[in-house]
Amino acid sequence: xxxxxxxxxxxxxxxxxxxxxxxxxxxxxxxxxxxxxxxxxxxxxxxxxxxxxxxxxxxxxxxxxxxxxxxxxxxxxxxxxxxxxxxxxxxxxxxxxxxxxxxxxxxxxxxxxxxxxxxxxxxxxxxxxxxxxxxxxxxxxxxxxxxxxxxxxxxxxxxxxxxxxxxxxxxxxxxxxxxxxxxxxxxxxxxxxxxxxxxxxxxxxxxxx
Length: 209
Ligand code: 5RP
Ligand code: MG
Known about the structure:
Helix content: 40-55%
Structural class: alpha/beta
Strand order of the largest sheet: 1-2-3-4-5-6-7-8
Bound molecules: ribulose-5-phosphate, magnesium ion
Largest sheet: 8 strands, parallel, barrel
Order of helices and strands: EHEHHEHEHEHEHHEHEHH
CATH architecture: Alpha-Beta Barrel
CATH class: Alpha Beta
Mean pLDDT: 98
CATH superfamily: Aldolase class I
């Protein structure tokens, strides 16, 4: 399984200081949504230049203007760009078109999708090949986890790489590995650990077993 570090509530300087130490342990670095709101696509360009072998995911959570917005993120150097699975299929199609132009991957974030099997069928029918089960920060605060949705997605998906996010830590990652995730996304589980480098190292050890 791959490990994706989500950088959400962080400054550029702190992100670079963390990545300089943990980049050997991770497979994908995510420029998270709050980080993008604060800094725009600058961290995407910076990480591409500083860590050329580390793919960058821009968590733009596109809801409209799929072609235009996905193009901005891929052109900045993102290898992965997120679109919301709840949005219109026309928007997803626009993202997929530009993903194909850049040789990048569009990840459909399934947060708040109510009928997962139906939507997965529609998205995979359109050409989506990466799906993310995502229990958001607000949902986590209400005690929810992504486990059940990941199990369902694993049963239903026919063609996709499966990402999972939502409060994953070194203590819980093995559960998501057992459920068949291809990529574990970890934000606070590294960033807010008492020792972030040790947490990343431990997660990498578990993910690469
Ligand atoms: C929130 C996000 C986060 O990046 C994602 O949930 C991972 O962070 P954490 O591991 O802290 O849940 O996209 O919308
Ligand atoms: Mg994110």
